[in-house]
Amino acid sequence: MGLPENSQLHFSEWNHNSNFIACGGALGTLKVVKIGMDVRDPKPNASALIVNQSLEGHNATVLNATWNENNQKLTTSDTSGLIIVWGLFNDQWAEEMINNRNKSVVVGICWNVDGTKIAIAYADGNVIVGTLEGNRIWNKELEIQLASCEWAPDGDMLIFGTADGKVTVYDDTGSHYLDIQMQCLESEDLEQALAKKENQKEEIICMKYWSPTLKSKALMELQEKEEKEQEKEKVLTGTAVFTNFSTRPTPKDHIEPEKNPEPYQPVPADRPRFMVAYARGVMQLMRSLSDTEPVVVRLKNLKITGAKWSPNGAFIAISGHDLNTEDPRHSSVHFISAYGQVVGFFQHFETRITGICWEASGLRMAIAADGNLFIGHVRPEFKWGAIEDTIVYAYQKEEQYQYGIMFYDYKIDEKTIKTVSYFENLASFKEHCIIINRQDDAGTIQALQNGGVYRANLSDGVITSRYAVTAPIDSMKLNCDFTRLAVVKLVEQVPFNITIYEFVGDELQQIYNCEKKDVWDYQWDANDSHMLAFKDKHKMLICDCSSVLEQSAVYGNIFSFQNLVVTSVNIEKLLITPESPTKAVIQESMIKAKQDVLSLLNAMKLDEAIDYAEKNPHAELWNMIAQYSVFKHQFDRAEHAFVKLEDYAGVQLVKRIRNIPSNELRNAEIFAFREQFEDAKDIFLHSDRKDLAIEMYEKVGDHRAVYELVKNDPDEERKKEAFKEMAEFHYENMDWEEAAKFFALCEDIKMQIDSLIRGNCFGELEVLARALPDESDYMVTMGDAFTTRGMCDQAVECYLKKKLPDRALHCCMELNQWQKAQFIADANHMENVEGLLGKYAEETTGASDEKSVATLGLYMRAGRHLDAAKIAFDIANDRREKMMPIDDLKQCYVLGALLVEEHRQSIRELKRIDKYNMVENTLDDESGLTAEQTRILENTWKGAEAFHYMMLAQKHLLTNRIEDALQTCVILSDYEEYLDPAEIYKMIGGDMKKIENKDFLLALAAANVGQFGICSRAMMRLEVLDTLDEAEREEMKDLSFELFSQYV
Predict the structure, then answer these.
(1) Alpha-carbon distance 810 to 626, whole Å?
(2) Residue 831 Cα distances to 389, 576, 810, 824, angstroms
(3) Same domain (yes/no): 459, 563
(4) Tally of domains within the chain
(5) What is the maximal distance between C-alpha atoms in the chain?
(6) Among candidate residues 899, 916, 940, the one where a domain is terminated
(7) What is the mean pLDDT of residues 164-173?
(8) Structural element, H or E, at residue 693
(9) What does the alpha-carbon distance between residue 1011 and residue 1004 come to, in Å, rounded to a whole number?
(10) What is the dihedral of CA 472, 476, 481, 484, to 10 degrees?
(11) In terms of CB atoms within 10 Å, which end of the chain has fewer, N or C?
């Protein structure tokens, strides 16, 4: 950067809007630079300084700098107390304002979030708060030594860090408001306590409240201006009515500039935002200024020199050096999450790190170290994977502990999001994906057979509490709010005692004991933490932790206790016929209190039922009274019951019903409250208030009922709305065909198409494509869908209706429909498809059989049978040189011959349909064929015949049909072009030794049938073969001598 010799940088600050980096330090050094490296292109040596400006004005060491992001100002201060505000004019940074108090060092400069107010803190306790224009708002001398300052996000509160490590808050008038408890200083581990020096002050290195960076007003105005200029540059073109030619020269295609969307930055409610970092490696992270349970981070053996929030507030970068070494050049940068978990680490041994800052994307950092400014790439370990053509990745959502899992199928551009709570990690392999999420339970309760109950963490298994409970323990269960524990103990190996305990602090206190009960089963109430149902053999008992009430008999296992009803299942009866379960095995038993109140209400003794509930209060009893009172129009008593239930909505319901003048409509509202919607609907319709019936069903989300009510209405808007609700209902339930039907009724073509695609209803999609107008914007979407499913004709039809022949052509090429591609290209005067096919064939043709076979298939699909035959014969020749099995070679030659016959058949078909002999001469003319193609036409089946006869000759020899073998071998002499005499084809057992070639076959067959003339000519051919060496030639002569000496 051209820094002065021996200059040292003390800080670096990155502007998140305009990408400038400010850095400065000793000797009044202050630089503003800008680099041109693309954050998505992490290549070495890819950076270049676009801006490198030295700012003159400071003579002492520059210590602080801060950006006003909203108004694009830079504020700096030095050790002499000089403060300068810099502004950008004509692409150059220049002084705007200067302030020099000359009494103390500036320890903190900060702008509020919207950049309208600035706070300046001096070490001697003086604080100045001013405006953007330089006007002073207030000035105060605080009777404390300051170390740092920071604005709260609301822009009204100022947070100060003192020289002795305390943190205090002042309001917008400079009055003391709050002292923040620094729990990180109140407790410390043994190692840090021993490392701490006597009378050592707690030095605050950084104090920062994270808030998202606002977009700069100036940059937004400039962007709007550029967009308007680009709009003006666009030239509209028109087409004359009676011609197919443009009325003016076609302008160059306008390329829309790529717009970077706003990054997705959710901020969970539980994530810390306020950070205080101390020099001795201790940090406190708080969710708010009043957070009583902050996150404490302790970094061992690290002296912190700087800390910065990442732009999205999810991470913190911490710079420092090792306390165990005296050399401060042993520097490092630690990365922790906002929750205090260490996620990364970087070491640097060559220079001393003095300043760090993040780039706006969070993927780059600038590090000031001695006289250098390093730009580093941050490589986060993202949670992601791939399932075939689908990319899977996780991201945090706005809701607390909620994560989105995106499944993005890039082939068909389909996105599916699943929401997961407490996400931890994911892994993928082939077509499967595993998602790991943490459950709500933080711990577990465990009991030992010989006594004792223990509470342990689920995360690490560490035992956190021990409770003395005597043995032997048979089982135990927690109540609904985890405050009480029911324990069944064994007496002579029989569960004969149930004891209820309550968690009080770190102790487990016994609150009730029920002895001499043969406990067969038990269950806590799902809503009431005080009630427990258990069975003494078949007799059911209800315990309220102070007494036991006997109930009716229950013949089964209890699986639910809720709303004063015990539900049990008779497992013994169920397993008698396990494959045919019936409802008869389920038993519901009301406890006595509910039975009594129900009897009183049935006898219309409402006041007595209320008195009973007052003496035996329970939410279910008051709910029964409220329901009955509303039904009987006893609104005063109903309101009293709702008050007991603390049900504000119920109280409001009573008030609303009271104000309804019509008795019929009042009854309808009561039926709706009791969820008797059909009765309520009948009353509404009888009262000619269909609108109220529709409103009722809309409230409860019964869209089908709404549809039935409005389907014959003349109000089209109401019908469309009902159709849309029905469509969305079916869409959410993945009933794609029904969703498509209702989307069609509400004329939502986009969602209709989406439903048809998801439901694989491509027949209906094809009908829809033909029904839509040619210029419909949905033609491309449907064409793409047809393309991905391999439906070439339908895709081409969609593209051509939209007047997109380019896409139609590429669709045909992608699906290997080359004949259709040629037709489209000819009709629209487009590029040469033959050339594209040839180029594609060259790319797929290679040394391997797989590539050659792929090219052969390409030519077959393109209707180029002669070219495909040539590839088949080339494959056969290649395999013959590699001495592949004879039957494989024969199959290759047969395939090539069949393809030639296909070519001839296509010629005959063209001649047959050419009634006027317009192309007959062209079809008969073979002057355009290459020599290779002419040879293929002349020798179509010869290769197949050669290997067929070769296999036949070997078969005859092996089956001892010698004369047949001789005749076949004589025929083979006409196929020397395909059968190399020196090749080894077969091994024959016994005294025949080796069959090395067709001549040896011929000689052998002739010798075996006594045709020694033929045998002699064959042996002479073998002796003069160039492929035989001297030893083999001598061996052949010896064999001839022995053969003819013995038999002739």
Answers:
(1) 70
(2) 31, 76, 11, 10
(3) yes
(4) 5
(5) 135
(6) 940
(7) 91
(8) helix 690-700
(9) 10
(10) -30
(11) C
741-761 pLDDT, tens digit per residue, is 888 888 888 999 999 998 888
d(CA 783, CA 802): 10
The CA distance from 354 to 10, in Å, is 5
Same domain, 375 and 461: no
- Rounded distance between C-alpha atoms, residue 783 and residue 874, angstroms: 38
Average pLDDT over residues 808-833: 72
Shared domain for 351 and 454, answered yes or no, is no
Confirm if 740 and 752 have CB atoms less than 8 A apart.
yes
Percent of the chain surpassing pLDDT 70: 79
Q: What is the CA radius of gyration of the chain?
A: 45
Which residues contact residue 689 at a Cβ distance below 8 angstroms, ignoring those fewer than 6 apart? Answer: 665
- The CA-based angle 333-110-36, given to 5 degrees, is 55
Give a yes or no: residue 836 inside a domain.
yes
Report CA dihedral (694, 700, 705, 709) to the nearest 10 degrees: 0
pLDDT over 50 (residue 982): no
pLDDT higher at 8 or 860: 8
Asked if 880 and 986 sit in the same domain, the reply is no
Residue 206 and residue 334 share a domain: yes
Highest mean pLDDT among 880-884, 920-924, 944-948: 944-948
Cα–Cα distance measured from residue 766 to residue 804, given in angstroms and rounded to the nearest whole number: 18
H-state helical runs in 382-434: none
Return the amino acid letter for 102.
N
Picking from 940, 969, 999, the residue at the C-terminal end of a domain is 940
Sheet strands side by side (includes 295-298): 204-209, 274-278, 282-286, 295-298
* Same domain for 520 and 416: no
Least confident range from 35-44, 101-110, 181-190, 474-483: namely: 35-44
| Peptide bond connecting 266 to the previous residue in cis, omega within 30 degrees of 0 | no
- Pair (323, 403) in one structural domain: no
- The Cα–Cα gap between 340 and 285 comes to 8
Which long-range CB contacts under 8 A does 824-833 form with residues at least 24 apart?
Answer: 824/796, 824/800, 830/805, 830/806, 833/809
Does residue 484 lie within any of the structural domains? yes
Find the CATH number of the domain harbouring 467.
2.130.10.10
Residue 128 domain-assigned?
no
With contact defined as beta carbons under 8 Å apart, do 362 and 378 qualify? yes
Sign of the torsion formed by the C-alpha atoms of 53, 59, 63 and 65: negative
User: Based on the number of CB atoms within 10 Å of its own CB, is 202 exposed (0-12), middle (13-18) or buried (19 or more)?
Assistant: buried
Q: Is 478 exposed, middle or buried (0-12, 13-18, 19+ CB in 10 A)?
A: middle
* 409 shares a domain with 352: no
Sign of CA dihedral 608, 610, 613, 614: negative
Three-state secondary structure readout of 799-829: HHHCCCHHHHHHHHHHCCCHHHHHHHHHHCC
Domain that holds residue 339: 201-216+265-356+366-380
